[in-house]
Specification:
heterodimer, A: 281 residues, MetI-like fold, 12 helices, B: 314 residues, 2 domains, two-stranded antiparallel sheet, transmembrane helix (chain A), transport (chain A), cell membrane (chain A), MetI-like_sf (chain A)
Chain lengths: 281, 314
């Protein structure tokens, strides 16, 4: 298989298609971010900035000078990191129990997680909006961290349980037989084996929190807690009928940078995590 | 929390050997303690508000006139279900779901086949395939909205038979097309990774055996590879369909619901957050939730999806 020249050409074409599919829109938004705002207002069709319509780093400087934008990036980083940390801690406990222990209610936890993974988030907006205003969580960091935790837990629990099932737990006893204390056995044997799974779950959780839009726009009202996707969508500039496309594009590129860095650094771990939860039987 | 209190009931049943049962009691307790926080957090933000929505949906309650709150029974549901607006948004949502899942499945499968066989540049391809997955949906929506824009985009110039000044967002179908493109672009890579994992589980020996027996590529695909990936395909369809049914971000960013592109999620959001109609909005929330249940149930029954595999109990 895969030796005929025709097949090789087909695969090469397919690979090129995948790269174009994935990278063209990203290249486009970067190109758009270099169009000058003047050329956008006058209309400048085409993939690349028109002649004389090249803005250099102006849009990036302008986006970064925007107090609301900086605040939103700060909110997003803070909220996503805290939600990720808490979610992974809670999920690790649950996944350990699911992978290692026999107890009543295991089915209930797994079914709840599955149900929540399919839950239409918008149907919670009304009740949560009401509840959060009543208990003072509206427009605060915890007001977003709590829903992010709930909706990332299913993914985190699945991913971690799949990883934990693969760990050869006998090695812990083996280490103890060899004279290690139980703490040493845990620290030197189990932690290094479990760490990659925990790390993968953390990346996927972070992606979810960073990407969320529904909670971001409906449970915040000011820059006190508004995350970056919500902030981008509300940013209309001085003329609401003519959005500052290139400025928005610069903001979008800045907001995407953390994701790109994470993807470049941890590609293998992310792929393993994404597929382990859904397919392993 | 409530799970912990039910522990003693199951204990009395099997006290065969004292030592073993003691250990299993302890294991049972520890298990429940460890999952309790996760269960509480998950239910606090979903089950509890959903019950509240059920209650609120039975009253006429708007934040603009909080003192006029009154119990109206099923009136909100009658109003919603007899309004053509609701059915129009339902049709749009189901349409988007069917179209996007179909194309994601077909394109995602082609991508998975290529990634499965490709030898060179494996790392680069897998890294780039994660980029659309990681990109914020709002950013994807903006990128495609501006790409389709007649004043600042490139699509009109690149696609033949399209006038340079064609306005994609002036009519329902072109606008929905643009929305679907953004949705498909972002989620196909995820689909292809799920299918790739399924593809990797199909035994090479079986494919070789079919080849030795003289099966053509097409026959191998339909008789050997696809039937053996069934579980992976079905789980991918189930998850993506329910995700697509909840479509909101792209519509919000790209059209704001104009030219009849509203989805059920968008209609619900607009009632609650923009018009402060908590009663009606809650009724729509409940209807949205029920629709998701019906679709999930329908897909599971229709395609006989093995949910145990999805939950990793198999």
């Amino acid at each position: 298989m895969g030796n005929t020249p025709l097949r090789k050409v087909g695969i090469a074409l397919g690979a090129a298609l995948i790269l174009i599919w994935c990278l063209l829109p990203v290249a486009w938004i970067i190109s758009l971010s270099f169009k000058s705002q003047e050329s956008i207002t006058n209309g400048s069709p085409g993939f690349f900035p028109s002649e004389g319509g090249f803005a250099g780093w102006d849009n990036y400087v302008a986006a970064w000078d925007n107090e609301q934008f900086r605040r939103a990036i700060f909110n997003s980083i803070g909220i996503s990191l805290i939600a990720t940390l808490l979610s992974v801690i809670v999920a690790t406990l649950a996944a350990y129990a699911i992978a290692r222990l026999e107890f009543r209610g295991k089915k209930l936890v797994l079914s709840t997680a599955l149900a929540i993974a399919m839950f239409p988030v918008v149907s919670l907006v009304g009740p949560l909006f009401d509840m959060w205003r009543a208990i003072g969580l509206y427009d605060t960091w915890p007001g977003l961290i709590i829903p992010y935790m709930s909706f990332t837990l299913p993914l985190a629990i699945w991913t971690l349980a799949a990883f934990f099932r693969e760990i050869p737990w006998e090695m812990e006893q083996a280490a103890q037989v060899d004279g290690a204390t139980s703490w040493q056995a845990f620290r030197k044997v189990i932690v290094p084996l479990a760490a990659p799974g925990v790390f993968t779950a953390a990346i996927l959780t972070f992606f979810f929190a960073w990407n969320d839009f529904v909670f971001g726009i409906s449970l915040t009202s000011t820059e006190a807690a508004r995350p970056i996707p919500a902030s981008l969508s509300f940013f209309v500039g001085s003329d609401p009928f003519n959005r500052p496309a290139s400025l928005l594009a610069a903001g979008a590129v800045i907001a995407t940078l953390p994701i790109i860095v994470i993807v470049l650094a941890f590609q293998r771990k992310i792929v393993a995590g994404l597929t382990s939860g859904a397919v392993k039987g | 929390m409530s799970a912990t209190t039910t522990a003693p009931a199951g204990v009395a049943k099997t006290p065969k050997s004292k030592n073993a049962s003691d250990r299993s009691v302890a294991e049972n307790r520890l298990g429940m303690k460890l999952v309790a926080p996760a269960l509480v957090v998950m239910l606090f933000v979903t089950a509890f508000p959903m019950l509240q929505a059920l209650w609120l949906s039975l009253s006429n309650y708007a934040l603009t006139a909080p003192d006029d709150r009154s119990f109206v029974g099923a009136q909100n549901y009658v109003t919603a279900l007899s309004d053509p607006l609701f059915w129009r948004t339902m049709l749009v949502t189901v349409g988007i779901m069917v179209v996007t899942v179909f194309f994601e499945l077909v394109i995602g499968f082609v991508f998975a086949l290529v990634m499965h066989r490709v030898i060179f540049a494996r790392g680069i391809i897998r890294t780039s395939i994660l980029i659309p997955y990681g990109v914020i949906t709002v950013v994807s929506g903006f990128a495609w909205q501006f790409a389709f824009s007649s004043t600042n985009g490139f699509v009109n110039a690149w696609v033949p038979f399209i006038e340079d000044n064609f306005n994609w967002f002036g009519e329902q179908f072109p606008a929905l097309f643009a929305i679907c493109v953004s949705e498909i672009w972002k989620t196909t890579p995820f689909m292809s990774l799920l299918l790739l994992a399924g593809l990797a589980q199909v035994s090479e020996d079986m494919i070789e055996a079919a080849k030795v027996d003289g099966a053509t590529w097409w026959q191998r695909m339909w008789k050997v590879i696809l039937p053996n990936m069934r579980a992976a395909i079905m789980v991918a369809i189930l998850f993506r369909a329910l995700d697509a049914f909840r479509i909101f971000d792209n519509i919000f960013v790209m059209t704001g619901g104009a030219v009849n592109t509203e989805s059920v999620s968008f209609l619900t959001y607009r009632q609650v957050i923009e018009q402060f109609q908590i009663g009606m909005g809650s009724a729509l929330s409940v209807l949205l939730f029920l629709s998701v249940l019906v679709i999930a149930f329908g897909i599971v029954k229709l395609f006989r999806v093995d949910l145990a595999a999805a939950r990793q109990e198999g």
